[in-house]
Amino acid sequence: MSQNRCLDFCIIQAYFWFVTELIILLIVIATALAFDFTNGFHDTGNAMATSIATGALRPKIAVALSATLNLVGAFLSVEVAATVAKGIVDLDRFDLSNAWDSHQLLLVVFAGLIGAIVWNLLTWLLGIPSSSSHALFGGLIGAAIASMGFGGVLWEGVMAKMILPALAAPIVAGLVAAIGTFAVYSLTKSVGDNEKNRYFRWGQIGSASLVSLAHGTNDAQKTMGIIFLSLVATGHIGADATIPFWVKASCALAIAVGTYMGGWRVIRTLGKGLVEIDSPQGMAAEASSAAIILTSSHFGMALSTTHVATGSIMGTGIGRKGSSVRWSVAGRMALAWIITLPASAIVGIFCWWVAHAIGSFTTDLVGVLVAFAILLGLSGYIFARSRKAPIDPNNVNADWDEESNSVAPAASTAPAAPSTPATAAQIEEEVSK
């Protein structure tokens, strides 16, 4: 009788572990897709900001086109996904046949995702085009350090395929875009500005589309790698397996939907705040960005598309005579780039400690749910703050405020209109245009 009771207890305990692990896995996958969504709307400006700023594409058409091409691009390559899945966290430190180690790896992935999402939302609120990729890497690195110490991170892979490309990308992109811009204006100096801009707007549609396609081949794969890592942790697939189709499809769809939402705050900074850009500059920036992103994707480098796009736009300001870069805005971006890795790592460490500490006193599931609740609370707060000064398709191209250099449009200096019914209606009609 006692043996039967012992057997029943073991079955119940095994079932409890299985259900707990499955629920945690589902939460981690949902959080990974949420990160992919934020990556989409945070990085829409990389492809479409200049086309929107020059009028080559209407704002809503631009984000719809970008979303479609991000969706397609996500299926073109998996080299970057492999880098993320196997190039950051040392999987050999975990015995995945042991339920405890599997849960710990899941916790590392989960805490890293929270760090990335929080940083993405914060920089989006401020209109700063920081790197979603580095936010993800920083979150994972912080969580891995909290779990296993510094030995749990594959520093050689991080340096070779993440840090060095991040340092080189904006410089190379800026040089290529500056040379391209100088060549374009030199070759077309006999063409009138209006005619020149009209033809280059058509060219921008093609070059911006290519950047969107390239973005899908690079950024959507990072979330594929994260979900792959989670599936490996729970024993659903082996470490040497290929990425399942459903993972590719769900990540492609998540980043496409996020892109369609339009990260208008970041689009505004890239399109209006960094350089006052014309169509030839926009085409040069987009062509440079696409070439560099596609090359890095081919070699499996988890490059920041934000760094590339921003470097290209700055390069067009340098390459065109009479144009200028707002260096105060550029400096704020550079500062954000420098602190992205450590800031998201700190959030990853904090979330790992919260989930781990609460899980030690209760269960792993409770710890994960508490960390998830923190993420939801912070996300809601940031969204509420964004509604105090909303940026949308109607004001994304408004004049930049030279005094504040913030993402908010310049305050209107027009005199107050009489409050008669006819005048109010006219004002409302004018604003709606």
UniProtKB/TrEMBL annotation:
**Which segments show compositional bias classed as Low complexity?**
408-425
Output the Gene Ontology terms for molecular function.
phosphate transmembrane transporter activity
Q: What is this protein called?
A: Phosphate transporter
* Record GO biological process: phosphate ion transmembrane transport
> Which of UniProt's keywords are assigned here?
Membrane, Phosphate transport, Transmembrane, Transmembrane helix, Transport
**Membrane spanning stretches:** 12-35, 61-84, 105-128, 134-155, 167-187, 245-264, 334-355, 361-384
**Localization terms from the record:** Membrane
Indicate yes or no for the key word Transmembrane helix. yes
Organism source for this protein? Answer: Corynebacterium callunae DSM 20147
Taken from the UniProt entry, a GO cellular component term is: membrane
Q: Which family does it belong to?
A: Belongs to the inorganic phosphate transporter (PiT) (TC 2.A.20) family.
Domain of life, per lineage: Bacteria
Pfam families named in the record? PHO4 (PF01384)
**InterPro entries under this entry?**
Phos_transporter (IPR001204)
Q: How does it sit in the membrane?
A: Multi-pass membrane protein
Q: Where do the segments described as Disordered lie?
A: 394-433
